[in-house]
Design goal:
single chain, 56 residues, 2 helices, elongated
Length: 56
């Protein structure tokens, strides 16, 4: 089985950019970018916790 890459940290900038793209469409760039950043951080910690739990 292939070894899993540990690059889940890249999910934070992905959600940041998604938030910025939504913000450009709704004309609330700063607000949506911040929401994307917060959601990215929450999902990062959730996935990190889930991965450590399943690896035990």
């Amino acid at each position: 089985m292939a070894k899993k890459k540990k690059n889940i940290i890249l999910i934070i900038p992905a959600f940041l950019l998604i938030g910025a793209a939504v913000g450009l469409q709704t004309e609330e760039v700063i607000k949506q970018t911040f929401i994307g950043l917060v959601v990215g951080i929450i999902i990062y910690f959730f996935l990190k916790y889930r991965n450590t739990k399943t690896n035990r």
